Amino acid sequence: MRFAVIAAGEGSRLAQEGVEQPKPLVPVCGEPMIERLLRIFVDCGATEIVVIVNEWSTAVREHLEQMKLPVPLRLVVKTTPSSMHSLHALSPYLRGERFCLTTVDTIFREEEFKKYIRHFQEAKDIDGCMAVTPYVDDEKPLWVGVEKQEDAEGASLLDKQGSHKKPRITGFHDKQEGDDHLISGGIYCLGDKALDVLDHCMEQGMSRMRNFQRQLVVEGLKLEAYPINKILDVDHKEDIAKAEAFIHPLEGKTLVGVCRGNEFSPNCVDNDAAIMNAVEQQLEALGAQVMLMCEKEFCRKATVLERAYGWPRCRVTVGVDGFFSMARSKQALDILGRIEEEGVLVVNSSLGVNRCIRRIMTERFIAGGIATPESRIIGRNGEMVKDIHYPCWLKRGDGCAQQKEDTCYVQNEQEAEALLKEFWLRGITSVVVNEHLKGDLIKFYGVSGTDFFYWFYPSKCGHRSKFGLEVINGEAQGIAFDAEDLKAEADKAADMLNVPVYGGDCVVSEDGSIRIIDFNDWPSFAPCRDEAAFYIATKMVCTP
């Protein structure tokens, strides 16, 4: 896939406001804008990069000629009257391969851009994909009309991972019309059909990129709108500071990640470590200084400092702006709880993690109306309940599952009574009994308050959970259900428990109804780690 940059503008407003460098060479977060784009394009797997600069911008041309990239860099030197004319000058070098075009001063977050490129590479049945944003900071925005995200019955359209399908573009408008809520982001993924339309525009004497985009719709090209949360342009001197704050919102912040102890990660040690490392990388990309430590090390350090200084004068939080934690031990959660009481951000909240203890979670879900199986709670040394249908599940109620014997499937009363005695002999203080639900088993992951939600059938992709219990429900049949309803119910459960970073399991019954059978604080996100890490980092930015 080729990438192209229009860097042929004058940058007159920046110059009038005292910015000495030509616009492409203006540094944002210490990196010239043109270099930032080229670096990101290389990371996206560019086969070739084509850049157009104007004839009088010798400094930009010389800068580009001196750059050494691992992919071919083609330079087009031509002064043009509009961006549409610049694209036409680039077009001979873009044909024969799909491409992405942007202007040099377009500012976006790298991970969102990379997701956009991956989507276009995978979407073989479209003619183009335009980056759009709900963030309006343009002096003359181009509004983008899109088709409704609903089917004939009014149900939300979501793809197989639970993300919204990208809507078809229906028009481009100088003024906001009807339900318009997105504007053009100035990033375009296109192919040869679009360049044919561009030739038609030139033949008709058109100018301006917005007129070219309108003509794409007129000639019937299939264009998708890909929403990106925020895209900025650097038109004025003050925009440079805005761009830097946007790219590095955590600049000057120090964050500590507390990793889960191995004893709380049965068969998931590597995956749990991997998600923490991925979040660390995303937070660093947002400008933060990040330190990871295991929960035992965290507890040891906090204990030593508390003994030396006392609490709240314990210096464990000095110079730390927030914590992100997968910790599960009582000691670590107690310490994190006291840190939260001092007003320091902790994600997930220790209070929320404690609410994920199965007995407490079950009580809260029942009281809050979360769709769950019929359940009973048995206190310590209690007898098996009589009013439950078999088969059913007996699950440890006083903590999270740490071994296979903590979550058991039983087929009759005799098995249940024998297993219950084993629970009591192991010192477990409460047991939750869940009815067994027939239907399709689904695993899901989410970050509440964001658009991220991922679901899949474990039986269809060879996924094996910590204890492999998904085999009980057998091969999923693909029963139709509303994925938007599942996301809403999962987000509601997460908010109820105060665990914005979550995962879980549900069963879809024959009638399409959904009931949550398990819910966890901060899972490993193994099938969707990189995307989840981005949204977890975003949550750290957005949480006050």
From TrEMBL:
Gene3D superfamilies documented for this protein: Spore Coat Polysaccharide Biosynthesis Protein SpsA, Chain A (3.90.550.10)
The MobA-like NTP transferase domain, residue ranges: 5-134
GO MF term set: nucleotidyltransferase activity
Keywords attached to this entry: Nucleotidyltransferase, Transferase
Stated name of the protein: NTP transferase domain-containing protein
